[in-house]
Structures are given as structure tokens and as C-alpha cells.
Amino acid sequence: MEHAKQVEQTKIKIKKAFIQLIHEKGMTALTVSDITRIAEINRGTFYTHYVDKYDLLSSIENHLYHNIQQAMHEELTAYSSWSHDEIQNILSSPYNVFIQALGYIDSERETFQAILSDNGDQNFINQIKTLIDLEMTEGLHKRHGDYSDIMPLDYTKEIILSSLINTVTHWLRKPNPESPQIVADILLKSRFLSPQQLLVFPESNR
Question: Where's the DNA-binding part (predicted)?
Fold first, then answer.
């Protein structure tokens, strides 16, 4: 039991050092020596747990991915059962799947900030987009729905997914971010409001 606790504490120190270095130097430039120096461990201890810095990154990303997937899956399944007539009621209350996912992201804010930053791993963004795509598509099909054919499918998906990812990334970068509940409400409204509805012009200009 004591050994397991020591291992966990060591991994936490390694992770904290790694996240700090992504912010300071970027994923490409940082080294294992940098990590061990800041974590105050020897190189042998690092290599006991990870093959290299990319193995460490993969371990962290897999953990984040799994937990986001878990947070989303049940709520998206519930969303698929909503009827069209319930949309107005949905708009008045936060979308549970967003709350669940954002709550988890907020609990790992520093990690997500680093990995989703320009210094981090842009491939992880694509992994998250693919995850959201799969979960949304599954939810639609369970509801016997599908994507509109008003434009090519790849553009439809890109508009939806990029909007979600960019909004969350913007939230992560804010020095004084809103609560997950407020951002969940923003994301929910963005699903049902057109860009035209987000712009206001004086009566004289209409």
C-alpha cells in the first residue's frame, strides 16, 4: 500500500513538471532531463514509469480521453431520447452532457490548457473532435435522426465540432473563466441560435 502511494505521488510530480514545461518550452523542446530536474527525481525513476516524454504524453491524453468519453456517453444517450417538442425546455436549462464534460475539464484545467495550447499536442484536439463526432452520431441514430443535407456532411460536422472545440478552448484560456454551468448554457444556446440571431442592428439600419 505504501509503495503504491509513493508511485502515485511520483507520477503526480512528473505530470506537474511536464505540464509546466509544456507551457514554458513547448512539447517539442522539453526533455526528460528537464522533467526530472523540475520533478526532483532521477532519470531512472522516470524511466521506471515511462519510455520517453511521448509515452508520458500518451498516458496523460489517454486518461483525459477516457474520462471525457465516460462523462459524455450516458448524457448523450439521454439526449437522444428528447423529442422535438422539448427543445424550448432544453434551452432554458443547461445541457447535462456539457456540464458533465466541462466539469471534468475544469477539474483538469491546467492539463487541458497545456495540451490544447499551441505548445501542446494539436493531434489531441482531433482525437476529441472524433470522440464528439462518434458520440453525437450515435445519439442521433438512436433518436432515428441524421445530419441535414443542406450542405456537404463534412462541412456540417466541421461547423458543429469546431464551434464546440473553439468555445471550450477560449474558455480554458480566460484568466477569470465562467463556471462550467454558464459555459454549458452558452454551448447549448449556440446549438440552436443562428449567427444572425447573435447580431443586433439599430432599427434604422434594417
Answer: 31-50
Retrieve residue 48's grid coordinates.
521506471
Domain extents in the chain:
1-50, 58-194
Domain topology for 58-194: Tetracycline Repressor; domain 2 (1.10.357)
Cell 508511485 sits at which residue?
7
CATH number of 1-50: 1.10.10.60
- Longest Cα pair distance anywhere in the chain, in angstroms? 73
Nine-digit cell at 100? 458533465
- Cell numbers that stand for 44 in this block: 531512472
Q: What pTM did the predictor assign? A: 0.82
- The tens digit of pLDDT for each residue in 101-134 reads 999 999 999 999 999 998 999 899 999 999 988 8
